[in-house]
Amino acid sequence: MKRTHTRSLRQFLGALFLSGAMASVFAAGAGQRMTVSGVDIYYGLMPAQIAAKHPLSHEERSMHGGVKGAKDAYHLVVALFDANGKRISSAEVHANVAELGMAGSSRKLEAMQIDGTVSYGAYFVLSAEGPYRITVQAQLPGAARPIEAVFDNVRR
């Protein structure tokens, strides 16, 4: 792994830690990373209740329209890195989260700046244990078509 890529991965994990969620997110292992067309796509899922515990003035309380009250709400965070390990911060990212065999729900992931890095995120309700399928589509600047990563057998 290149030095810049390792640093970027540490920044992504650091951003999750700063958001108060590292205790609930397992490290970005092989199942949480996929390389598509030279782009590394990482995801993390954390209970939205963690964000709800922040003070009202904390930015995470209001991002993506605020933490929804549902006890089964989860925050999906996605980070993109180019082949050189540089974070991609100007993509348009969408995700669909669905129980296997179901249609699920789709959202545009909003760009979030945490600790000087950009990730993308949105809240989803995951009321069943799973497994879930997370489909991430990213339209990169100047690319003719979006790239897509499909993560299967995701558990909340």
Walk me through what this model shows.
By secondary structure, the protein is α+β, with helices and mostly antiparallel strands. It contains three helices and eight strands. It has helices at residues 3-18, 49-52, 59-62; strands at residues 33-36, 39-47, 73-81, 92-99, 105-114, 117-125, 132-139, 147-154. An eight-stranded antiparallel beta sheet has the order 1-2-3-6-5-4-7-8. The longest helix has 16 residues, at 3-18. The two termini are 28 Å apart.
Key traits:
alpha+beta, eight-stranded antiparallel beta sheet, 3 helices, 8 strands
Describe, in short, the structure shown:
The chain is an alpha+beta fold and 156 residues long. The chain has three helices and eight strands.
Arithmetic mean pLDDT: 78
Beta-strand percent range: 35-45%
Oligomer: single chain
Order of helices and strands: HEEHHEEEEEE
User: What does the main sheet amount to?
Assistant: 8 strands, antiparallel
**How far is the N terminus from the C terminus?**
28 Å
Percent of residues in helical segments? 10-25%
Rg calculated over all Cα atoms: 15 Å
Helix/strand/pairing category: alpha+beta
Q: Can you tell me the residue ranges where pLDDT is under 50 for at least 5 consecutive residues?
A: 6-28
Number of helices: 3
Please list the strands of the largest sheet in the order they lie side by side.
Answer: 1-2-3-6-5-4-7-8
Q: Count the E strands.
A: 8
